[in-house]
Amino acid sequence: MVRRHAGWTHRVKVTLHRVDGEVTLDVPPGQSLFQSIAARHRGLITALCGGCCVCGTCRVRVLGGDPGEMGPDEAHLRRQLAITDPAIRLACQMRPGCGLRVDIIQPE
Ligand code: FES
Predict the structure, then answer these.
(1) Atom of ligand 1 at shortest distance to CA of 92?
(2) Residue 61 is part of which domain span?
(3) CATH (domain of 27)
(4) Does residue 1 form part of some domain?
(5) How many angstroms does the Cα of residue 21 sit away from the middle of ligand 1?
(6) What is the pTM of this model?
(7) Is pLDDT at 78 greater than 70 in this prediction?
(8) How many angstroms does the Cα of residue 72 sit away from the middle of ligand 1?
(9) Residues sharing a CB contact under 8 Å with residue 45, sequence separation 6 or more, in sequence order
(10) Any idea where the 2Fe-2S ferredoxin-type domain is (predicted)?
(11) Predicted local distance difference test score (pLDDT) of residue 67
(12) How many C-beta atoms lie closer than 10 Å to residue 76's C-beta?
């Protein structure tokens, strides 16, 4: 695999697990997981702040694969929201790597 400074140089496949089955999508280089989901599967994920790393509603549970590195903004919001489970990530901040598999967590 080849990485650039800001992320992958090619599309990566991501599998979303849902109660009614799985959805597979390609995430282009530089695009967040949230952007890719919202572009192709409108309404599948909640993101009240629109991807600005403020609300925490875009949570996913990482089931496997490469979720990408966690940046300081995501780490900061996770601390504010007391998210301690390392498998829980914010889709709007994720630049996923190969083979990522996630569950979308619907906000309560
Ligand atoms: S969409 Fe609000 S934190 Fe991700």
Answers:
(1) 4
(2) 10-104
(3) 3.10.20.30
(4) no
(5) 24
(6) 0.86
(7) yes
(8) 14
(9) 34, 37, 38, 58, 60, 91, 104
(10) 10-108
(11) 92
(12) 11
